[in-house]
Amino acid sequence: MNLLQELKQSTIAAVWFMFLTFPLMVIKVNTVTKTIEWRWWNMAFIGIAFFFFSALWRFMHRRKEKNTETRSQDKKTTAIRRRLAERRFFVPIIVLLIIATLAFPHTFSLYQTNIMISALIYVMLGLGLNIVIGLAGLLDLGYVAFFASGAYAYALLNLHFGMSFWMVLPLGGLIGAIMGVILGYPVLRLRGDYLAIVTLGFGEIIRLVLENWNAFSKGPSGIANIPKPGLFGFDLTLQQHSVYLYYIIIALVIFTIFVINRLQDSRIGRAWIALKDDEIACQAMGIDKAGTKLRAFALGATWAGMAGVVFAAKTTFVNPASFTIWESVIILCTVVLGGMGSIAGVICGALMLILLPEYLRAVSEYRMLVFGAVLVLMMVFKPGGLIENVRKTYHYKEHGPTTAE
Amino acid sequence: MDFEFFFKLFLGGLTRGSIYALIALGYTMVYGIIELINFAHGEIYMIGAFTALIISTVLTMLGFPALAVTLIAVAAAVFYACCYGYTIEKIAYKPLRTAPRLSALISAIGMSLFLQNYVLLAQTSDFLPFPSLIPDFEFWEPYAHIMSAAEFTIIITTVLVMVGLTFLIKFTQIGKAMRATSQDKTMAMLLGINVNRVISFTFIIGSGTAAIGGMLIASHIGQINFYMGFIAGIKAFVAAVLGGIGNIPGAVLGSLVLGWTESFFTGYISSDYEDVFAFLFLVLILIFRPSGILGRAETKKV
C-alpha cells in the first residue's frame, strides 16, 4: 500500500516535470534556418530523473522531520567532534594537514598548484563573507565589489605609482574596509532583505563603473601585466613564482582562520551572533546595532580586499568581467554549503566547490546549475551546512541537592 | 530646450515604466503576502518570453494564421509561467516558510541561478530574434508617428492588468483571503483560510503577469536571451520598493517614476551609466524613504 502510494506520487511528479519542461527541453527552434529540433530523449530523461528525485525528496523530508524530533544526528556529530577535540586525535591531524599543505606544490604539478591557489583565494573570500553572513547574519550579495576593489587597487597603484605587492596587500585590505564602511554606513539600518538587494546593486554599480570609466580603469579591456609578488629582488621562474604565491596565500588563509577564530569568541563576535538572533533584544541589552553590523561589514570587506590583491597578482590581469554578481553568489554558495558560521565548514565548502568543477571538466558547464540547486537544497534540507557550527553552550553542573541549613 | 526630444523621452519612459510595472506587480504581490524577495520572478518573466518564442515559431512553421499564433503563444506562455511559479513556490519557498528569512532569500537566489542556467543549457546562450507578436493595428495608424502600436499595447495592457489586480484584491473572495493572509498568517488559518492555496494562487497570478510583461518587452525589443530576466527583475524590484512594496498602485507609480527618470537620464546625461543610475536611485530611496511613495511607515512591535 505504502509502496503503491510512493510509486503514484513519484509518477505524478515525473509527469508534471515532463510537462513543465516540455517547451524548453524538448523543442529547440532555429529561427535562422527555420527548423525545429525535437529532442524527445530529454523528455524521457527528465521523466526518469524526476521519478527518483521525487522519491528522494520525500525521503529527505521524512528524515529531516524525524531528526528534528529526536535530534539523533546532533548527538552523533557532537560525539565525533568531541573525539576530534581530544589532544591525541587533534594534534596528529593538524600536523598531517600542515605537512600535506606544505608539500602540495612540490608533489603536484604547476597546473595543480595554480588551481589550488584559486581555490585558496575562494577559501579566503568564503571566510571573509562568513563574518558577514555566518556570524552577523547579513546577506551581502555585493561581496565581490570589495574583491574587485582590492584587485584594482593593486593593478592601478602598481600601474601609476609602481607600488609592490607587499605594499599594496595591507592597503588593499584597508581599501576594502573603507569601501565596506562607505557602503555599510547608509544601508545597514535597512531590514535584511533590502540589504541583500542594495548590496547586489552596489556590486553592480562598482562593476559598471569599472567597465565604463575608461580613463580610470581602462574599461572592459582591463589592466594587464601586473607583476607577481617579488621575493627580496630574487629572479624567480614561473614555477617558483607559483609556489611562492601558494605559500603566501596559505599564510594568509592561516592568518584569516586565526583572526576569525579569535573574533568569534570575542565580545564583538558574540554581539554579532546575538544580533543575528534578535536585534531588538540586543538593543535592549545595550549593543550598538549599527556600529556592530558596520564592523562586521568592514571586517568582511577587508579579507575580500586582500584576496583581491592576491588574485590580481596571480592572474596578472584584471578586467571587470571577473567581478560579476555571480561571483558573489559562488562565494555565498561556498559559505552555505560548508556551513554558515563554521570555519572548517567554509574551508571544505570552498575547496569542494572550486576544485570539483576543475577536475570534472566534462560536466563543468553544469557548474552554475548545480550551484543554484545546492543553494536551494541546502536551505531546504540542511540549513546548517555540511559541517554545522556548534554554538558554545555552558552546562550547569548539578552537585546534588544542596541541603538547607 | 527641444520639446520634441523631451516628448520622445517622455513616451519612452512611459513604455519602459509600463514594462517594469508588469514585472513589479508580481513582485509586490508576492512580497505583500510572504515578505520574500522572489529573485526567481525575473526568471519567470524570461521563461515566459522563451515559451512564447518557441510556441509561436513552431505554430508559424505548421502554417497557423498569424492571429491564432499570437493568441495560442500568449496563452501557452502565461500558462507555463503560472506552472513554473507554482512549482518554484512548492520546491524552494514552501519548506522554508517558518525558517529564518536569510534562508528563504538564499533559496530564492539559488532558484534564480538555477533557472537561468536551466534555460541556458536547454536552449542557447545566444540572443534569439523575437517575432513581433503585436500586430500593427489599423485604427492606430494615424497616431503611429507619435507612438508605435507595440508601445500603445504595452501601456494599455499595463493599465488593464493593474485595474484587474486591484479589483481582484479589493472585491473578490480570494482577494480578501490574500489580504488576510498578508496581515496575519496564523489568524487567517484559524479563520478557515487555506493559506497554502492563497500563497500558491498569488505566485500563479504574479507569474502570469510577469509572462505577459516578458512577451511584451521581447516583442518590443525584438530579441531575447537567458539573462534578460535578472536585471529587469532587479529594476522591477527597485520600482516596487519605490512605490511602496506590497502596494499595487504604488508598484505602477514607482515603475513609471523609474522609467521616466531612466529615460531622461539616458537622454540628457549619459547612456553608459543607465543601470548605475537605477541602483543609485534604489539606495537613495531606501535610505531616505524606506516605505516608498505610497507605502506606510512600519512600526515594529516587540
What does this entry look like structurally?
The complex is a heterodimer of chains A (about 400) and B (about 300). With about 400 residues, chain A is an all-alpha fold. In chain A, about 75% of the residues lie in helices and about 0% in strands. A two-stranded antiparallel sheet of chain A has the order 1-2. The longest helix of chain A is centred in the first third of the chain and has 31 residues, at about 40-70. Chain A is globular, with a radius of gyration of 25 Å. Chain A starts with a helix and ends in a 24-residue tail after the last helix. Chain B has helices spanning about 5-35, 40-60, 65-95, 100-120, 150-170, 175-185, 185-190, 195-220, 230-245, 250-270, 275-290; strands at about 130, 225. In chain B, helix 1 (about 5-35) runs antiparallel to helix 8 and helix 1 (about 5-35) packs across helix 9. The N and C termini of chain B lie far apart (about 55 Å). Chain B has one domain: ABC transporter involved in vitamin B12 uptake, BtuC (Orthogonal Bundle), CATH 1.10.3470. In chain B, strands 1-2 form a two-stranded antiparallel ribbon.
Set down the secondary structure blueprint.
The complex is a heterodimer of chains A (405) and B (302).
Chain A: H1 2-20, H2 22-26, E1 27-30, E2 35-38, H3 40-70, H4 72-85, H5 87-107, H6 110-135, H7 143-161, H8 165-187, H9 192-212, H10 214-217, H11 238-265, H12 267-277, H13 279-284, H14 289-315, H15 325-338, H16 343-359, H17 367-381
Antiparallel strand pairs in A: 1-2
Chain B: H1 3-34, H2 41-62, H3 66-93, H4 101-122, E1 128-129, H5 149-171, H6 173-183, H7 185-190, H8 195-221, E2 223-224, H9 228-243, H10 248-268, H11 274-288
Antiparallel strand pairs in B: 1-2
